[in-house]
Write a structure and sequence with these properties.
Structural class: alpha+beta
Number of helices: 2
Order of helices and strands: HEEEEEEEEEH
Radius of gyration: 26 Å
CATH superfamily of one domain: Cupredoxins -  blue copper proteins
Low-confidence stretches: 1-23, 146-157
Helix content: 10-25%
CATH architecture of one domain: Sandwich
């Protein structure tokens, strides 16, 4: 009796699956696009006359195309986030020009294209308040932002307390074929 019941259940499941299956397959038929991945946002902290990437602590931000950078004012001072190398740059503010003047606390910009995008603060240009966004290939970003996986499957840690900072001459990395 048990064998007959199991065969009947298997036949019922197979019949139900076939009832909802497409009757034919057309390889030329349009395929529904995959949903877009959620947007990526990178935070850059702004305070005390400095831009500081929330991931690496430096004024350089490494991202991939399509990433939105959000500058966040952390104190009561006035700042700008102005594209270009300074007030003498003829392209000053041509790409973006946001003001973090109270009560405004954030400014965002989405970077779509690969490249190097310098920016500065118009209010604090004299003290060298500058930053750079580098839009790079995802493979390069993974190496620069951590995410390197060792042969044992664990993430490779660079440094004792934090990732190395750009321009830190005390850091060296040797890459070879390994043995």
């Amino acid at each position: 009796m048990t064998t007959i019941l199991l065969r009947w259940q298997a036949a019922a499941v197979l019949t139900a699956c076939l009832a909802f299956a497409p009757t034919s397959f057309d390889p030329g038929a349009p395929v529904a696009p995959l949903p877009a991945p959620p947007p990526t946002i990178r935070i850059v902290n702004v305070s005390c006359c400095a831009f500081s990437d929330s991931f690496n602590g430096s004024p350089q931000t490494f991202i991939t195309p399509g990433t939105t950078v959000q500058w966040v004012r952390l104190d009561a001072s006035m700042y700008s986030v102005t594209s270009g190398t300074g007030s003498s740059d003829p392209q000053m503010g041509a790409l973006f020009n946001g003001f973090l003047v109270p009560p405004a606390a954030t400014f965002t910009y989405t970077f779509s294209n690969y490249g190097v995008y310098p920016y500065f603060c118009q209010f604090n240009e004299g003290v060298g308040m500058t930053g750079v966004v580098r839009v790079v290939n995802p493979g390069v970003a993974n190496i620069l932002l951590g995410g390197c996986i060792g042969s044992n499957g664990s993430e490779i840690t660079l440094g004792n307390n934090a990732p190395p900072r750009i321009g830190d001459s005390s850091f060296a990395l040797r890459i070879d074929g390994g043995t």
